Amino acid sequence: MLHVTSAERVLTGAATELDRPDAPLALDDGLPGDTVLDASGCVVTPGLVNAHHHLLQSAFRTLPGTRGVPMAQWLPTMAAAYDAAGHDPALYRAAASVGAAEALLCGVTTVADHHLNWPHDVDAERTVELAHATAGAVRAVGARLVLVRGSAREDAQRAARSADAIVRALLPAGGTRAGVSEDGMLQLAVGPAGVHSDDEATFRELGAVAAEHGLRRRTQANEQVDTAIALERYGRRPVELLDAWGWLAPDVTLAHLCDVTDEEIARLAAAGVTATHAPGCDVPMGWGVAPVARMLEAGLTVGLGTSGGGSNDAGHLLADARLAMQASALVGPQLPARAVLGMATAGSAAGLGRPELGTLGAGTAGDLCVWDVSGVADAGVADPVAGLLWANPGRRPKHVVVGGRVVVRDYALVDVDEREVVAGLHERLRQGAAV
Q: Which of 181, 192, 231, 411 has a CA that sits 20 to 30 A from residue 22's CA?
């Protein structure tokens, strides 16, 4: 049993917290004996849940030609980098290791990897190898993974065959509900890139795989470019197309939603769709700021994601929570810090169909972060919970726990050596596509 003691404040949920709790927070780590984690001078929160990432992009940050350019230029530049490196298990393993290690060191205990860039000239079994490499790397680091078998301009039937094969290989026993493995460390989902990239057949085929296996569905919608292409190609806006294609339902999460009207927000809320805000991508890509306050007021559940290293360059969800809070004042009332922390925890978890994540207490998964608020960057802060966002940009947790087990202790990874993870990616990239 793991006991977290002496915390200044314990945030158990978005609206529930304990000030200097008398009793230690006890978590079942499945190990014999008792372990004590000292949280003196610290705030304890649930583990953060990154609801939208692209882990492969962790190997391709700040590429020349990807900053301050339109998406029509950004996409082929990124694709060329993937092709030059070569799609193989070694690259996927190295990129996922870096992304997952960065996530844990930044307090993210669950990462949803919307993987879009599968090689189009391989059979389904080869994509299973790539999925295995990604899932194994994240597990080895100690984080939870939601692997979204995405697609981008891919043959619909090929994508569906691959998704089906991945589910059967990675969850051979069928998992539990919502495509989750028995131990809760892996979840599978499906998700086309968006109506700007994938046609109705792809949405239908991947939707059928989701229905067969009980998976969640995720896609991207209503970035400005998404809206412009949908109008040009179909004469309809993305939300209308998604509705017609059977993709407005409670098992669907839509990322971005920068260019969304009040009528569309109401339509999404009525359908039970959840949303993911990704300001760390949307702002530098020039897509604007999603009207999160209006979404929440309409009854939409909103999570938070970083998107990938090709647009954001970082997997630091707390930093993006700070950006979301500050930038919200540009499009409506400013979001309170606790509301944004709720988005980064329970809000993201809700979009995954995982109520056991993003909260602390009986029946939860036992994922938490211990944030030191005793240093000079937090001096003078009246509200230490709000201060997690307002003060100390780039803040990292002192300790991180996943499933009751310590995976980051004193700012260092427990299961892997950070230097070896970095060296592994650098070595793989040096080898190029000849691997």
A: 411
The full 3-state SS of 160-186, as one line of letters, equals HHHHHHHHHHHCCCCCCHHHECCCCCE
Domain 48-351 has CATH 3.40.1280.10: no
Share of the chain above pLDDT 90, in %: 89
Task: For residue 218, list its beta bridge partners.
Answer: 253
d(CA 56, CA 74): 15
Distance CA 322, CA 270 (A): 29
Q: What is the pTM of this model?
A: 0.97
Residue with tokens 């993911």: 276
Domains of the chain by residue range: 48-351
* Strands (DSSP E) found in 176-230: 186-192, 216-221
Residue 307 pLDDT exceeds 50: yes
H helices of 43-123, where?
71-85, 89-105
Residue 336: CA atoms inside 13 Å, Cβ hemisphere, count? 8
Say how far apart CA 268 and CA 377 lie, in whole Å.
Answer: 40
Q: What is the DSSP letter of 7?
A: B
CA distances to 63, 97, 288, 304 from 313, in Å: 10, 15, 18, 16
Q: Residue 266: is its pLDDT beyond 60?
A: yes
298: left (phi over 0), alpha (psi -120 to 50) or beta: alpha
**Where does residue 331 rank: exposed (0-12), middle (13-18), buried (19+ CB within 10 A)?**
middle
Burial 26-54 (b: 16+ CB within 10 A, else e): ebebeeeeeeebebebbbbbbbbbbbbbb
Q: What is the pLDDT of residue 151?
A: 96
- The runs of H, that is alpha helices, within 272-401 are 279-282, 292-298, 317-327, 337-342, 348-351, 384-390
Judge whether residue 413 has pLDDT over 80: yes
Query: Residue 176 has what pLDDT?
Result: 65
In this prediction, residue 435 carries a pLDDT of: 45
Structure tokens at 429: 């990239």
CA–CA dist 82, 291 (Å, integer): 33
SS3 call for 36: strand
- pLDDT band at residue 23 using 50, 70 and 90 as cut-offs: confident
Task: Specify which residues 36 forms β-bridges with.
Answer: 3
H or E segment to which residue 51 belongs: strand 48-53
Q: In Å, how far are 151, 202, 205, 241, 247 from 199, measured between CA atoms?
A: 11, 6, 10, 10, 12
> Which residue type occupies 25?
L
